[in-house]
Design a protein that fits this description.
Layout lengths: L2 E4 L2 E4 L2 E16 H8 L13 E14 L4 E10 L9 H10 L3 E9 L2 H11 L3 E3 L1 E5 L5 E7 L2 E8 L3 E2 L7 E9 L2 E12 L2 E4 L2 E5 L3 H8 L8 E17 L1
Parallel strand pairs: 6-7, 6-12
Antiparallel strand pairs: 1-2, 3-4, 3-16, 4-5, 5-6, 8-9, 9-10, 10-15, 11-14, 12-13, 13-16, 14-16
Length: about 240
Amino acid sequence: MTAHEILGRTVEMPVQIRRATAFMAMYSVPTAAAQQLIDPTGLEILQFRPGRGLCGLVFVDYVDGDLGPYNEFGVVFMVRDHRTRGGSVAGDLRALATGGAGALIHQLPVDGDFTLAAGRGIWGFPKVLADFTADHASDVKRASVSQDGQLIADLTVNRGYRLPGGTTSTTMQAYSHIDGITRCTSWEMNPSGVRTRLGGAEVTLGSHPIADELRSIGLPRRALMTTAIPDLKMTFGDATAV
């Protein structure tokens, strides 16, 4: 078992998140514009149809976990496995269906000093400090994130429909890139009570540079789908440079 010293505390691996809540909106974005943003990582945008990739906006409230309670906002791009180059749309769709796709954590504001230090130090996640207001409890989910008084994003997700099958465990590769290094982390998710629907999101972008970046790839526009997870357990392994 490996361990990391973070701000005077020992963090043993893997890191366990025993309870969190989350909601997200997934958007179709132009492959070329998204690829330009992530080129420094060496990864490739996954295409769910010709010329289109997937970008997710997600708010998470970490209630009980090894890094303590905190709020998080993520800008996530679906990418090909780092060992795959020049794939096809058919291959990308197979990867999505079979769990072979990866998630690049492109932006990751949080509101806790310890999780910021752990996220950057252990996994290379691009965490920065920000301010949050969030309502994960109501049927209509809403949260906003700002930094230095500048709004990044305000996201509202309407109530979806319960997915059959109860809890489904999923493992995927989470990618990160800071200080010129791209890393890969095994990320296991165990969600319960998932609700999802087509569309169902309203997003407002502010004046922050992250908002400008999102506008540069065509947001806001109608979301492809939205998802709310009232009970989410997660496990994060150690990161490996790729």
